[in-house]
Amino acid sequence: MTVVDGFISFVLTKIGLAGLMAVIIKPETVVSPERNSLEGCLNYFPEIHVVLGNESCDLDSAVTSIVTAFLLCQRKSELECVVLPVLNVVRKDFRLRTEVTFFLQKTNIPLDLLIFKDEIDLEKLAKEKKLYLTLVDHNILSADQQCLEEAVVRVIDHHKLECRDRGVRCDMTVEMVGSCCTLVAEKMFTMCPSVIDQQVAMLLYGLTIEEMLRKDLKVVEGNKFRIAMPSISGFLEDLKAKPKLSIALEEYITKNNYHGLVIMTIHHNTETQKVQRQIAVYSPNPVIKEQLVNTLKGAQEPGLELEPLNLGISYLMSFNQRNIAASRKVVLPLVRSFIQESHYVSETVTNIFAQKRAITLHHC
Fold first, then answer.
1. In 10 A of CB 190, how many CB atoms?
2. How many other C-beta atoms can be found within 10 angstroms of the C-beta atom of residue 8?
3. C-alpha to C-alpha distance for 23 and 10, rounded to whole angstroms
4. 10 Å Cβ neighbour count for 56?
5. Which residues of the chain have a pLDDT value below 70?
6. Rounded to two decimals, what is the model's pTM?
7. HEC profile of the chain
8. What pLDDT does residue 10 have?
9. Which pLDDT does position 351 carry in this prediction?
10. Could you give the CA distance from residue 84 to residue 236 in angstroms, rounded to a whole number?
């Protein structure tokens, strides 16, 4: 049983949830077995910490609800409290989130042990002053959940800040990155890296190559030209470890009619507290690849300070990026200028599609 399996079994289950106190909170406490409903078990705790995702209950929201609750559980294990992830949707509608259900099953999260908003009375807990609420993947409560506002003590979100000032009572982490998982992963590596086992890593990063590229993606378009700019937490070496990477990259750009990829990675070193960035350019067309690389190398004010990194991957040129302050917001205008200012682009694109059609017809 992995760490998260144990957490799911003891924290998420409603039948036998009373055993949580003996396992995680206070070993000397005994709870009568007949109090096995969720509401009955929660009566034994003076504090109920709930991690609540947004009402879309998409993959980012569901995963960050579960993993953030897991993280908080590690940090609050000495307190007389329980930490529960709550999916902000009614249970009967959850099966409609097919991407979410598929991925959670893939990562061995028992769906029947999850808690949904219609299965816990958050308003009652708030009125009793027992509720401590962490919002993930959103920072403002919906109209029908405004009664929970005073219980909000933490926000982790990657959307534009919309909520009113909650003052010192609320710990705010709001950054405009591609996904909330990115922010939660950074917190895991900084605050509690020892609990990151295979299942946690799978939840946060364990996607296919295509899913990794789509997860935090910007696309620059113009002049009948498309360059994808995915951002990935970790190192390029992690991407290299994926099986059949070259084939997957080729299939990905072909499927989405991209003409190249500019892949950016970021890694937070928990020992040195330093940030490391890498960047890679991928395109089967050598002209596009070379010109994109030259554009990035030639950047000024700020320069990217690129150092070659040989990963031995076909059609991929990789670099360590010494200017760690240059985020995707800095690199994206460079790619846009490459598309807008390059005179050969339209002709190159036409030739690429002509070559692809010729190859396709040859194999038909």
1. 12
2. 22
3. 8
4. 15
5. 1-37, 76-80, 178, 205-207, 241-243, 268-273, 342-364
6. 0.57
7. CCHHHHHHHHHHCCCCCCHHHHHHHCCCCCCCCCCCCHHHHHCCCCEEEEEECCCCCCHHHHHHHHHHHHHHHHHCCCCCEEEEEEECCCHHHHCCCHHHHHHHHHCCCCHHHCCEHHHCCHHHHHHCCCEEEEEECCCCCCHHHHHHHHHEEEEEECCCCCCCCCHHHCEEEECCCCCHHHHHHHHHHHHCHHHCCHHHHHHHHCCCHHHHHHHCEEEEEECCEEEEEEEEECCHHHHHCCCCHHHHHHHHHHHCCCCEEEEEEEEECCCCCCEEEEEEEECCCHHHHHHHHHHHHCCCCCCCCEEEECCCCCCEEEEEECCCCCCHHHHHHHHHHHHHHCCCHHHHHHHHHHHHHHHHHHHC
8. 45
9. 55
10. 34
Cβ burial, residue 335 (10 Å; 0-12/13-18/19+) = buried
Tokens 């038909």 belong to: 364
Q: Which of 248, 264, 363, 216 has the alpha carbon at shortest distance from 315?
A: 248
Reported residue count of the chain is: 364
What is the rounded distance in angstroms from the CA atom of residue 220 to the CA atom of residue 251? 19
Contacts of 152 (CB under 8 A, 6+ apart): 133, 134, 135, 141, 166, 170
Comparing CA positions, the residue from 137, 8, 122 lying closest to residue 62 is: 137
Strand partners, 237: none
Task: Select from 175, 283, 295 the least CA-distant residue to 228.
Answer: 283
The residues pairing with 229 across neighbouring beta strands, listed in sequence order, are 218
- Token pair recorded at residue 133: 């609420």
What is the rounded CA–CA span in Å between residue 38 and residue 20?
11
- Residue 210's CB: how many other CB atoms inside 10 A? 14
Backbone angles phi, psi at 34, to 5 degrees: -75, -15
Selection from 313, 165, 291 nearest residue 227 by Cα: 291
Interatomic CA distance for residues 2 and 182, integer angstroms? 22
> Tokens 């070559």 correspond to what residue?
355
Q: Are strands 81-86 and 47-52 parallel, antiparallel or unpaired?
A: parallel
- The torsion angles phi and psi of 163, rounded to 5 degrees, stand at -75, 160
- What tokens does 332 get? 């994206």
Strand 217-222 to strand 225-233: parallel, antiparallel, or no bridges (unpaired)?
A: antiparallel
The Cα–Cα gap between 328 and 228 comes to: 12
Q: Is the peptide bond before 302 cis (omega within 30 degrees of 0)?
A: yes
